[in-house]
Amino acid sequence: MARRVINKKRHLGLQQLSAFADTGRTFLGPVKSSKFIIDEESHESVVVSSTVRLLESLDLSSAVGQLLGEAVQAQHSAYRTGASTLLFLVGAWSRAVEECLHLGVPVSVIVSGMSEGLDSCIEEVASLHVPLHDVFDRIDGTQVFSELESLNASLCPFLQVPSDTGSIPKERDLQDAASQALTTSSLSGRPVKSAKPSGPQATVDADKNTSQTPRTLRNSLLADSCCRQSVVTHSRHCSREARAERTSKHGAAAPQPCRCSDLGELAVGLSHGDHGSMRLVEGAVRLQHQSTRVCQGSRTVPFTFDISRVFTRCLPGLPETFSCVCSGYVTVVSMFSAAVLEDLQNQPLRVVLIEGDLTERYRHLGFNKPANVQTVLGSMRKLHQDSSEELWANSVLQVLIKFNVNLVLVQGAVSEHIIGKCVHAKRLAIGSVSGRVMQAFAEASGAVQVSYITQVREDSVGSGVSMTSWRSRPLDVGDGISRMAILLKTEGINLVTVVLTGPVTAQMQTKEDRFWTCAYRLHYALKEQKVFLGGGAVEFLCLSHLQILREQPPKKGDRIRSGGLHNTSSGLASPLALYRPTVLKCLADGWHKYLSTVACNTANHSSEFEARTFIQHHLQNAIDSGSPSSYILNEYSKLNRGVFNSGISNKLEQIPGVYDLVTPKIEAWRRALGLVLLVLQTDSEIIAGPGRTQIKSQESEGFLFL
To answer: Where do the segments described as Disordered lie (predicted)?
Structure first.
């Protein structure tokens, strides 16, 4: 962990949170930097590329560390995304709270002010919702990921234009940007090719780690249409008429409604720079949609992306270009078991599904061993075991022969003796199969899962399963043992396997994590049927909204009762009203640091000071416009219209935008602030005692300590 001086006279918990958060700042934004974690005792090292893996490698044995780990794990378990945002805001708001304490702001005021400020921001950012309309209705005719990825942006377009150029780019510049995007992929430097229709085994190129040049990235951002012109219908501070009047006064055109109805556009917008992983996710969605449509036939049932029917198979040692999406189940078997592949791959197979282990000693939980049995001689015991297992294996083989079973899928372990028996009899037994895979094969083949091989009957045997080799050559998955990858499938199976390959074994965990992050982004976006305008737009709106709240005069007599605000007849301003601007400024500083850090991580600014100055420039423009949300939407729509008026190829009907998830982002904010305020109040009780955390003044009686 990064070294940091801890001042024991101040709040230790808040300082520890800041120290932990500093270790993960390079994971923020679309351009992430990996870290080496070195064990001080064993001197062993591990490479991590995500917040979750980072915290797994750090010592979180302290009380604050455990609370932080639980908060991050809760966010990750629920959404698989937002952990980096949570960790960064924990650090930023911990420093903000320390600053408030240094300025003499009471703890109760900090808790109430920051909580209400965050709630106000959450209401305000609803104006940046982008609804998703029928993204699967035209899935066969929509643009695929590879046609759109080179035009994708990672940050707000107006947050990437140099601060000394406030005007809109010239039409010629936009033409050059669009032409360059059409002819060259911004990731790989190769011509963009249209993806072929998804078949039983749709192969998708793996991620290329070549980054965009600054000019290409900037031009593609200028061409971004993240919000296809949205209308603001909600504001806490002024009516529709007042907003229209201010918009007219400042000369801003009213944005048009915003929507997204293209799967390829949505996938690019949610990729956040990880185009290779999201390309595989989109391929999985298209295959799942195709198989679902085949099963439904003429019935019209709305399609939903079932992420529980998507699996990953990591195969290190192969080139990244071998990564692909397959309909069915890809697994690896030993070369000994693969010997039967030639005999089984050209015929329909009958399958049996075993829920437990396929071993001689596997019994149900209530099984009791015979009592009063004692083994006298060890050699006799081994002889008895060998003969018992041999008899059991022969009985298993007889069951398979009786019902003409070629394939046995087992959820648990499989006896090596049984595997050998099956191979010699031209049959295959595969263990450690996921329960969801078993369920998918049960639905598609008509098999019924059983707990023991003795329960197999004719009506429990499935049929129609096919077996092929995924790649003809043997694989070495990192343990020095050669294996063969095979593909099992049957007609209409709702199961997709994403094969992840790479030459470096140490990177496979990172590849798998990145894939699942993209998969869950798309899953939750489709589930909620809405996304945020992304690339920092939401955080920028929060920043400007808090600035407006700070400048509003406090209501006379505002006080706190039971955690809320209400008016009283008192002529004195409450402590919350007095300290409100300070608390809101500290809360806003968290998002200011967030935006500047993302800008620095993406190499758009050489220093954090330069990034903060640039953000402050746009912040002032947004506030002066009278409606920050309209300012954000108009900046996007201006850039979008510039592209459409430039006369470029009509193939660019829509240029993809940048999107963020709604609920996961908001929950990351809530968890971050909740953790900081919890540590603040705990520290305050430890330092001064519960009775000293209240404000000792005539005004303190109205505060409720949370």
So the answer is: 167-215
pLDDT in tens, 83-132: 999 999 999 999 999 999 999 999 999 999 999 999 999 999 999 999 99
Give the span between the Cα atoms of 208 and 205, in whole angstroms.
Answer: 8
The position carrying tokens 């909600």 is: 234
Residues 516, 660 within the same domain? no
Residue 690 lies in a domain: no
505 with 541, same domain: the answer is no
Three-state secondary-structure class, residue 90? helix
Angle between helices 12-22 and 83-102 (to 10 degrees): 140
Q: pTM (2 decimals)?
A: 0.78
Q: How far apart are CA 67 and CA 686, in angstroms?
A: 17
Q: Read off the pLDDT of residues 591-626 as tens digits, 9 standing for 90 and up.
A: 999 999 988 888 777 888 888 888 998 899 899 988
User: In angstroms, how far apart are the furthest CA atoms of the chain?
Assistant: 100
- Residue 496: which domain range? 307-362+388-528
Q: State the residue for tokens 């709270």.
A: 97
Number of residues that make up the chain: 706
Q: Given its phi and psi angles, is residue 518 left (phi above 0), alpha (psi -120 to 50 degrees) or beta?
A: alpha
The answer to whether the CB of 266 falls within 8 A of the CB of 135 is yes
Strands (E) in 369-503, as ranges, are 407-410, 428-430, 462-469, 475-476, 482-490, 496-502
Q: Mean pLDDT across the chain, nearest whole number?
A: 76
673 burial type by CB count under 10 A (0-12 exposed, 13-18 middle, 19+ buried):
buried
Structure tokens at 520: 């869950």
Q: DSSP of 373-388, one letter per residue?
A: -----HHHHHHHHHHH
E-strand stretches of 543-613: 558-561, 564-567
Q: Considering the domain boundaries, does residue 418 fall inside one?
A: yes
Q: Which of 106, 94, 488, 184 is nearest to 328 (CA)?
A: 488
> Which 3 state secondary structure label does DSSP give 290?
helix
CB atoms within 10 A of CB 351: 25
Q: How far apart are CA 442 and CA 482, in angstroms?
A: 30
Tokens of 605: 């600014």
**Cβ partners under 8 Å of residue 35, min gap 6:** 23, 26, 47, 48, 49, 54
CA atoms within 13 A on the CB side of 402: 11
Rounded to whole angstroms, the Cα distance separating 298 from 473 reads: 41
Q: Name the residue with tokens 């290329």.
A: 208
Structure tokens, 506:
């140490």
Q: What is the CATH number of the domain that holds 584?
A: 1.10.560.10
Q: Which residues contact 417 (CB under 8 A, 6 or more apart)?
A: 360, 389, 390, 393
- Pairing mode, strands 407-410 and 349-354: parallel
Does the residue 251 lie in any domain? no
Strand partners, 490: 465
